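Tutorial, part two.
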Amino acid sequence: MTLTTRPPTPGATRAADPTPPRSTIRALEAEAIEIIREVIAEFDRPALLFSGGKDSAVLLHLARKATAPAPVPLALLHVDTGHNLPEVLAFRDRIVAEGGHRLVVARVEEWIADGRLQERADGTRNPLQ
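Running the prediction step on this input gives:
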């Protein structure tokens, strides 16, 4: 396969860059860090939901920035649906060990077994979380 490029057409306009300006990103980061600090200050036992996905990984990173150089005083709460990939659980466990975090795991299987939840006929567990 050969890749060929053409020079821009005269008078053509380029699409606007969808990336927000760095100043906007920094302002959003600062606001998120401030909210995390307020939660830590206001509540006795705050926790951070941690699935091991990109969103919760970013939130944990922001929590680390909010409390540095002190450790993050948030328990990490993982809702184990029973449908997790082994790689995700390994990543979760590595993050917990490296950061010295307290991990709390809520297992959907246990809630189904003791009758607190009823499993859906289609097998999905996302609404049960």
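The longest strand covers residues 75-80. In part three we will examine how such features are distributed along the chain.
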